[in-house]
């Protein structure tokens, strides 16, 4: 089996990554950065986001594992102390695969007919570059509301514990194929109205944002932010692709939620 290790880059993560490389090659696994079947991310949840985007072109052939070198994470849920157990699990047992839904983002522009498509593991955020963010929100092709405020966050179930949670969104179990729209500081008064609550859409219910005033936006896809000019619309839906995690031991989602936010 071919594998690779992606490190956060700090000394602790680099040392651990090197150990994993040596152990796995001792067990006759092949180090292959280009076409790994298993990607071991060493660092934090942010490191796994990086690893995901590095290999997002071959999700069907890749299983991810996260080892944390800082605090417990949602994607990085193995402890460095369990390293030997993990190596034995990878080399000796047939691991289980757990699939989580992803978000597909499709941006079309007012000039030309090219479109850009992105996949997000946590979320996409849309904010204005200057002044109040104003966009019309459509759900399943029908006008829903005109949103004024700081921006919107559209998250996956596994991303619901990240930025979305800070915005008052619900935590969604990753077995529910869905996306969640959370508001960032909407303007609500006698003139302007938004729903004022997070919305959860099932698979195949697309939502679309259309600029009302100016067409330039700051878009965030997980840990990456960039500027998009001349936007005609942005469409969001549950992606056809999924991320696959290699599971060697049960660590249920709600236990991870409790261990991360309530107590360890
Ligand atoms: P970061 O600044 O290190 O991330 C902020 C925190 O979010 C870190 O503690 C990170 O864990 C954690 N995190 C990432 N994915 C998570 C998930 N699915 N569930 C629970 N916590 C999660 O930057 P980063 O590591 O590159 O991560 C990017 C993410 O940060 C974005 O996707 C967004 O969700 C989140 N973010 C949150 C806020 C907010 O809460 N107000 C604002 C901006 C961005 P690690 O330390 O293990 O990496
Ligand atoms: Mn981080």
Automatic annotation (TrEMBL):
Example of a GO biological process term: NADP+ biosynthetic process
Pfam short name (any one): NAD_kinase_C
Binding site for NAD(+): 45-46, 122-123, 148, 150, 185
Compartmental location: Cytoplasm
Domain of life: Bacteria
Molecular function terms from GO: ATP binding; metal ion binding; NAD binding; NAD+ kinase activity
One CC-aspect GO term: cytoplasm
Keywords tagged on the record: ATP-binding, Cytoplasm, Kinase, NAD, NADP, Nucleotide-binding, Transferase
Active site (record annotation): 45 (proton acceptor)
Cofactor: a divalent metal cation
Main subcellular location of this protein, as a coarse class: cytoplasm
InterPro entries documented for this protein: ATP-NAD_kinase_N, ATP-NAD_kinase_PpnK-typ_C, NAD/diacylglycerol_kinase_sf, NADK
EC number assigned by the record: 2.7.1.23
Catalytic activity from the UniProt record: NAD(+) + ATP = ADP + NADP(+) + H(+)
Function: Involved in the regulation of the intracellular balance of NAD and NADP, and is a key enzyme in the biosynthesis of NADP. Catalyzes specifically the phosphorylation on 2'-hydroxyl of the adenosine moiety of NAD to yield NADP.
Matching NCBIfam families: PRK04885.1 (NF003424)
Protein family per UniProt: Belongs to the NAD kinase family.
Name used for this protein in its record: NAD kinase
């Amino acid at each position: 089996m071919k594998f690779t290790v992606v490190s956060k880059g700090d000394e602790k993560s680099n040392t651990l990554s090197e150990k994993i490389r040596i152990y796995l090659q001792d067990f006759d696994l092949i180090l292959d950065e280009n076409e790994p079947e298993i990607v071991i991310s060493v660092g934090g949840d942010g490191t796994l986001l990086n690893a995901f985007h590095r290999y997002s072109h071959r999700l069907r052939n890749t299983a991810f594992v996260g080892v944390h070198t800082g605090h417990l994470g949602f994607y990085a849920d193995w402890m460095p102390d369990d390293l030997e157990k993990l190596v034995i699990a990878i080399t000796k047992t047939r691991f289980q695969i757990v699939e989580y839904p992803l978000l597909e983002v499709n941006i079309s522009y007012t000039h030309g007919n090219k479109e850009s498509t992105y996949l997000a593991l946590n979320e996409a955020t849309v904010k204005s570059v200057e002044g109040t963010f104003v966009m019309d929100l459509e759900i399943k092709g029908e006008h829903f509301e005109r949103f004024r405020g700081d921006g919107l966050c559209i998250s996956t179930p596994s991303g619901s514990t990240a930025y979305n949670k800070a915005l008052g969104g619900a935590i969604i179990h990753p077995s529910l194929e869905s996306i969640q729209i959370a508001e960032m500081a909407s303007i609500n008064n006698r003139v302007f109205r938004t729903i004022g609550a997070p919305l959860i859409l099932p698979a195949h219910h697309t939502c679309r944002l259309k600029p009302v005033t100016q067409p330039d936006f700051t878009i965030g896809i997980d840990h990456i932010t960039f500027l998009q000019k001349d936007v005609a619309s942005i469409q969001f839906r549950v992606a056809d692709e999924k991320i696959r995690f290699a599971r060697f031991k049960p660590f249920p989602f709600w236990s991870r939620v409790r261990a991360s936010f309530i107590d360890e």
